[in-house]
Amino acid sequence: MGLNYDGTSYGLLPYEVEMRRRLWWQIVIIDSRAAEVSGASSRHTMLTYSWTTKLPSNVNDSDLSPEMRDPPIDNPGLTEMVFVLLRYEIAHYIQEAGVTFDRKKLDEFEAYIEGRYLKYCNFSIPLHFISALTTKSSIIKLRMTPYYPRRMIGPDVPQKDKDALFLGSLEIFENHNKLLATNMVKKFAWNVYKNFPFAAFVYLLREVRNRPIGELSDRTWQAFEEAVHGRVASDSRKRSTQDSPLHLALGNLTIKAWEPREAVLQQYQLGIHTPEFIARLREEISSKKSNASTSSSTSSLTPAESLGQPMGFSWENTNFVNQSNGFDPSFSLTPDATTINWSYWGDYMQTDNAQPDDQSGMFKVHPNYDVL
Fold first, then answer.
1. At 159, phi and psi to the nearest 5?
2. N or C: which end of the chain has fewer CB within 10 A?
3. Pairwise CA distance, residues 38 & 34, whole Å
4. Residue 335, preceding bond cis, omega within 30 degrees?
5. Which percentage of the chain shows pLDDT scores above 90?
């Protein structure tokens, strides 16, 4: 259909030019999302190619007509296109930036987005609210590009970068919670629910073990608790996912992340408030382990294996989507084209500094647990 060439190249009327632009950029977004949930990286999407199709105009539908002969004039403020245009702008930036990361260019892009769109947002308008928060989270993710998520651990990552990654992940997660908890955006809850910030969640689970107490730790556990309540309240389908392998395995990892905090609070007699969802997860996993032990031994197994998943299980396994009683494929995390399996996440979650001292049995706290 030649959608990758701007309609003006064919001498088409303005209305058809606009419709072709909207269609093309929506295909780009869908293709990028399909690549993410199927295991391919951005290097294997349409974003690696070039095209001449321009971004759609910033106009309301009422400004367009099949009979118009002159191109629509871009609105200097915000229109009904704000949400999708912001997504298209980010996709366009990624397509132009390629595989390189230029902090100066990203700063310029953020300033452009702020001046062109975000400064006009009225947070009392639902479409503006969701557009602004999702865009801010997307820009934070762009800033994490050099490290996130495969390079965010290890001795080659300076502590200041780990701190920035932690705070960025927390801000993304908090933005997600704000969207879930805001009544005026309930009609967009399906979109918010589908776009769970999985990478930020897993990173926070791991790193909060190194920060068992302090302001950031408090914020993180509050964010986890709010996310549980928000997602339950926002899921109109009331799906039951307690028996899904993903729910149980992540629940197991969440408990492991909580244990260092619990131990430090006990150690220093600071008082412990065990979140309700932690107690519930412990009950669920204890029950599953008890049931599993009656049929076969689960000793020395990874979380995935003990929950019935083979060692080679990967996030992009489409059979898993069918087995998990409605599991949302948007949970999938695919930072590159390499198959991601439970052994990777198991190793990732086990690498931490919040471990008991061999001699004293007391938990050691990372010296920089509250540096921000």
1. -60, -35
2. N
3. 6
4. no
5. 46
Q: Residue range 199-204: average pLDDT?
A: 88
Residue 219 CA to residue 100 CA, distance in Å, equals 33
Residue matched to tokens 């419709």: 19
Domain boundaries, the chain: 1-143, 201-372
Which has the closest alpha carbon to 56: 9, 7, 116, 12?
A: 7
246 or 163, which is more confident? 163
Task: Please state the rounded mean pLDDT for residues 147-152.
Answer: 56
Please state, as a whole number, how many other Cβ atoms lie within 10 Å of the Cβ of residue 258. Answer: 22
Global confidence as pTM:
0.76
Share of the chain above pLDDT 70, in %: 70
The alpha carbon torsion through 102, 105, 109, 112 (nearest 10 deg) reads 170
C-alpha 138/C-alpha 337 separation (Å) is 21
Which amino acid makes up residue 52? T
In contact, 105 and 47? CB cutoff 8 Å:
no
pLDDT at 304 over 60: no
Torsion angle in degrees (nearest 10) through CA of 102, 108, 114, 116: -120
